[in-house]
């Protein structure tokens, strides 16, 4: 699929963008003058977990930005990952908390600035994980416990790749899969299956899910035998399903994926971009801010971005015909 085709698909998704609030911008007066910064801002979130509660979970973050910037900031949740990119391209959202592929797309397609990337417990990359409720089939060794969760095939090392020799056993299984825009829920695990010799259109039964926690729950509830997600999405549902770490076993990890981060639209002045970047980075360095960001996307800190690291996920998407 060409970039133009991908953009068209994303535009269709954008038509279904679920907004809980709208941003308005003040028009520039006189063509020679640059456009004024907007009178309010919209922060776009992708549905990596339950959409219904994500805006409420992010409210302390948007409240902080409102106070720090002196203008209202409203959180929205897109219907899918690509819709968030298109929201930024259309200037319907000016701040985006986006996965690595969407950071690259927002920059490449719409000139957005990638200003921050996340750290999770000191790590700037993460693997996608293969999960199962049938460890007897997929585990070549006895599952081991780490932090109350079970792993096998060396996946307890918490760094990818690991256990990929076992994924050929996924053939014939029901698999919980996120949309094609998700690096961890689709791109990297699907590419790993293809590299293992599977035809992912005919060799597995794809069970579509909209978010990482839904993938975990599909495996937990038995709706799928295998699921994909970022590491370790089991933590998201542990509060409601305290035995999830025992019932859902991680048996393989993909290659490492660049962490998600924050992009800002090119319509914002350099001064406002700097204010937003500083406010977010400073907030992430506080105990309160780190706790809020952890509750939203398991983020422990926001650090200056290195946009050059994002090309590997774009290359992976290209191998699947998504670019």
From TrEMBL:
Coiled coil: none
A Pfam family annotated for this UniProt entry: Phosphonate-bd
SUPFAM superfamilies, per the entry: Periplasmic binding protein-like II
Domain of life: Bacteria
Any one of the GO BP annotations: transmembrane transport
Keywords: Signal
Signal peptide: 1-27
InterPro entries registered for this protein in UniProt: PhnD
One GO location term (cellular component): ATP-binding cassette (ABC) transporter complex
Protein family: Belongs to the phosphate/phosphite/phosphonate binding protein family.
Protein name: Phosphate/phosphite/phosphonate ABC transporter substrate-binding protein
Species assigned in the record: Cryobacterium arcticum
């Amino acid at each position: 699929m060409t970039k133009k085709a991908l953009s068209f698909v994303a535009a269709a998704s954008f038509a279904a963008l679920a907004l809980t609030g709208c941003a308005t911008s003040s028009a520039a007066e006189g063509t020679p003058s640059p456009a004024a910064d907007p009178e309010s801002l919209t922060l776009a979130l992708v549905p990596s977990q339950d959409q219904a509660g994500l805006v409420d979970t992010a409210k302390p973050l948007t409240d902080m930005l409102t106070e720090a910037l002196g203008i209202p900031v409203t959180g929205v949740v897109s219907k899918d990952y690509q819709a968030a990119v298109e929201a930024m391209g259309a200037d319907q959202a000016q701040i985006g908390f986006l996965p690595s592929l969407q950071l690259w797309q927002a920059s490449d397609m719409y000139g957005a600035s990638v200003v921050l990337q996340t750290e999770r417990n000191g790590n700037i990359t993460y693997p996608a994980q293969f999960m199962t409720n049938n460890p007897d089939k997929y585990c070549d060794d006895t599952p081991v416990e780490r932090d109350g969760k079970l792993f096998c095939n060396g996946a307890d090392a918490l760094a990818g790749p690991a256990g990929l020799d076992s994924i050929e056993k996924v053939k014939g299984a029901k698999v919980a899969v996120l949309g094609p825009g998700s690096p961890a829920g689709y791109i990297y695990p699907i590419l790993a299956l293809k590299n293992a010799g599977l035809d992912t259109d005919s060799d597995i039964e794809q069970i579509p899910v909209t978010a990482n926690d839904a993938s975990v729950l599909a495996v937990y509830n038995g709706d799928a035998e295998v699921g994909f997600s970022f590491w370790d999405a089991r933590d998201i549902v542990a509060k409601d399903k305290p035995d999830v770490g025992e019932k859902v076993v991680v048996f393989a990890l993909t290659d490492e994926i660049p962490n998600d981060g924050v992009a800002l639209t090119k319509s914002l002045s350099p001064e406002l971009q700097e204010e937003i970047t500083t406010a977010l980075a400073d907030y992430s360095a506080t105990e309160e801010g780190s706790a809020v960001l952890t509750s939203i996307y398991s983020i422990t800190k926001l650090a200056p971005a290195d946009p050059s690291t994002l090309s590997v996920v774009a290359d992976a998407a290209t191998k699947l015909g998504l670019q």
